[in-house]
Amino acid sequence: MVKRIIYLLVLSFIIFTDSYGQDPTFSQFYANALYLSPSFAGATSQYRFAMNYRNQWPAVPGVFNTYSISFDKALTNFNSGIGVLATYDVAGSGNLSTTNIGLLYSYDFNINKDWHIRPGAEFKFYYLGLDIGKLVFNSQITGSGTTPSVTPPPFDNVADVDFATSALVYNERTWGGITLDHLLTPKTSFYGDDATVPVKINLYGGTQILKRTRLRQKSQEVLSVAINFQKQGKFYQSDIGLYYYKDPIIFGVWYRGIPFATSQAGDAIIGLIGIKTSQLHIGYSYDFTISNLIGSTGGAHEISLVYEFNNLSLGQLKKRVKAIPCPEF
């Protein structure tokens, strides 16, 4: 009962005070490439369809689920790509939800024969909703349970527009990029206060430290190291880890946290297993909590599905935008 009361108090504080929203995070960020950076729009053979689902902290009361669906297409004759991305994040017993629907564009420039730069942009619609009838307020909590529901205070759902921009630099085995999101700082207050989503900065990159191709077996073996750093408002987070791919299986292990920045060991250790074929990529990851909340969260589960397809001839495929060497999960 005490844990439930604390949870309800915290949730009420978040909703009804001047708070600043934070974005959900995907552990398999390359499996949700358009969410990571608009520069990845169209960075595929021709068409790509992706779905992602994350169940955050299942042991905590309420729900913390994030859904994402995207579709993008390479415009091979224009060295560019377009895409559409929709995300839906819902949290808590009051179904506090955030919906984003965005249109993306990217263009690929040749710096020289080895290096490319790929700027990108996203314009999106932002919507914040709440089912206030499902909330339990402080005045309803008694020693024997809860009193009948009260008339909730009036509020308005929030709609706004937003913008993100990015740049990605890469060659055959190395990549690095930056994304600046929420540049229009959309509103997050149900009561017209000056609460906004702060600008988010993503720095990501990596390299393939081992790459072997067996032409006779038509198989590959790749070992990659990658990092992803995020800062939003007062909060920051880093992920660093390894991917090992040997056709058709991929394994990954990640550390989430910033060593020595806090007294905690970090936030999580993430394990990944996936299957990658020429068209279909399926991945599952689990975040094992190593912070002070180790016995309270239940970790996090994440599932991704990416399907790539094309109807190009062999000659057209040779002219397509150069493949980016980053992993698919």
What letter string, H or E per element, gives the SSE order? HHEEEEEEEEEEEEEEEEEH
Our estimate of the beta-strand percent is: over 45%
**Mean pLDDT score:** 85
With helices defined by DSSP (H or I, 4 residues minimum), what is the helix count? 3
> Could you state the CATH homologous superfamily?
monomeric porin ompg
CATH topology term: Porin
Task: Itemize the secondary structure elements and their pairings.
Layout: H1 2-16, H2 33-36, E1 47-56, E2 64-75, E3 80-91, E4 96-107, E5 109-110, E6 116-129, E7 141-142, E8 145-146, E9 158-170, E10 174-181, E11 200-214, E12 219-232, E13 235-246, E14 249-256, E15 268-276, E16 280-289, E17 300-309, H3 314-318
Antiparallel strand pairs: 1-2, 1-17, 2-3, 3-4, 4-6, 5-6, 6-9, 7-8, 9-10, 10-11, 11-12, 12-13, 13-14, 14-15, 15-16, 16-17
Describe this structure in words.
This protein has helices at residues 2-16, 33-36, 314-318; strands at residues 47-56, 64-75, 80-91, 96-107, 109-110, 116-129, 141-142, 145-146, 158-170, 174-181, 200-214, 219-232, 235-246, 249-256, 268-276, 280-289, 300-309. With 329 residues, the chain is mainly beta. The protein has 3 helices and 17 strands. Mean pLDDT is 85; it is low at 1-19. It starts with a helix and ends in an 11-residue tail after the last helix. It has one domain (2-318): Porin. Strand 5 (109-110) and strand 6 (116-129) form a beta hairpin. Helix content is 7%, strand content 50%.
